[in-house]
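Researcher: Let's continue the batch. This sequence belongs to FAD-binding PCMH-type domain-containing protein, and it's 599 residues. Same format as the previous ones, please.
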Amino acid sequence: MECLHYIILFEERRCRCLANNSSCWPNALAWEAFNKTVGGRLLLPEPSAAVCNGKTYDAEACTLAKAQWYNATWRSDQTGAMQNHNWENSSCSVSYNSTTCNQGSVAVFAVDATLPEHVQTTIRFAASNNLRLVIKSTGHDYLGRSTATGSLLLWLHHMKTMTLIEQYSSCGHTTVLNAARIDAGVQWGEVYRWLNEFNLTAIGGAAGSVGVTGGYVQGGGHSPLSRWKGMAADQVLEYDVVTVDGQRQTVSECQNGDLFWALNGGGGGTFAVVLSVVLRTFPSPSIVVATFDVTTPNEARYKSLTEDFIRLVSTVADAGWSGYFTMLDMKLTGVFHVPNGNLTAVNVTLTDFAIKNSDLDFGKTLMFPLQSFYDYFAIILEQSNPTGFNVLLSSRLIRESTVRNSPEKVAEVFAQARGQSSTGSSLLGHIVAGGAVSNISNTNNSINPAWRTALLHMVYSQGWLDTTPEDIQQYLAKQVTHRAEILDQLSTGSQPSCYSNEADPNEVNWQENFYGSQTIYNQLKTIKDKIDPLGLLVCRHCVGSDDWTSDLNCPTTSDLPTTQHPGNSTISNLSVLSTKIEQVLLVSLIIIQMFLSIY
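Model: Same format as before. Here are the structure tokens for FAD-binding PCMH-type domain-containing protein:
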């Protein structure tokens, strides 16, 4: 048995101890001792292109990295990789060779957690040493919330257990049949394949490499099936979490209810570390699929096509359709899918649309039935989600009433905001709201209420090359923000809102736009301050991040508590601790000793 002792001194918050600060960063002996307590699972992450640059160059590994660069599964398996390369923020690239390879925003150490005890020990170690702690499963995060310079990473990717609960009962409610308990490292593609063996499915992401339990479900989680059954967070029955004091807790409607409400929509990496989630599943529906691809000859014709398409969206929404579309240059492309749909009815609807626009070529339009949602995922969705790019997003939720009542205005704004291939941008439309998403009866989550009145989720995507000059990158970032401002023309008389998981990291009014209102944000903040008073879990535009400087390493106020490391290594550390204890005793503060035994 090995035992580490942690002392928490409640005083004012201080700046996080980062790897470049030798005066506070744990020494080699401390890291060695910590590594033993997590079963030897301490890793040294590297930027995903490190093997192609500098002292870390490895010809064979570099060839593999170049071949797999846009493969989301490969990126998920790399400790230091983010799905969007720009959030690694390093000097490394597979596009060119550099004599140096900086660590950038990639964490310095990582714990490859496979057991709850690994998570508990890591949280306690980070808290006692005042370290910057970040959490990652797959690295799917458009705001860079899964990594930070000089930090310790809690990597949950290899927690992969899935269990089907034939009869789940909790909180005195009606028994739920075939609920699924999903561990923190499981990805949606794995869930879909597994549930398909039971002729079941779940309300999950379109990209199979996205993790289930992290930012996706905790941020609300839109889905190809959300119009059919609601948002992913609407399906949550229970969480198994570790809170920032290192304690493991069950969280549900009737156990830790405030935390349950916050976790269901209030954002990942903020309130607790989720070990697993219990979700409703459903008998898998058959799917009717329709793809379309049409190009117009000029701007005027593009706007008129777009207006006809917006009217079509209202029509197909009434019939239970969902889908995705892209607006780029003079092209309008996309896919519709209809759970338990009728192929003949789909054919009639799209044929009418094509006849109305008979001067245009709809030659690539296809319609076909599939037996299950998993077939749709495997044939269509899984093939269309490459990663590894440098990309920023901005997004807006578009009210259903606006789409239905003002199709001309919607078409005009969408045409204005659409992407341009010459700049590496695109406007992506998600027909994933309305339908069951508009059901407001579930009050046990904090999903942005704008989802309940929306029909469309619009995302502007801007990419760039590793070789793009910094000033051009800054210009493109401003264009990302500007495109959201263009979409805001459709929010006249109401507050703009967006999906916090697919949003602009430079969003100004993020508290209101991400979470729905200042009132809701304040409710979430109250829970955050109660459950994490030291602010151990902090990430960009997450609840409570406004208490910290822009790099999230230093508090903006000085009247909040923090933690101090007692010295699990050297005499000098103990001397510093002794002096600190004397100071604390002089002001009558409390010293709490916590013992953690790891077998």
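Researcher: Any comment?
Model: The chain has three domains: 1-46+107-158+525-599, 162-283, 287-518.
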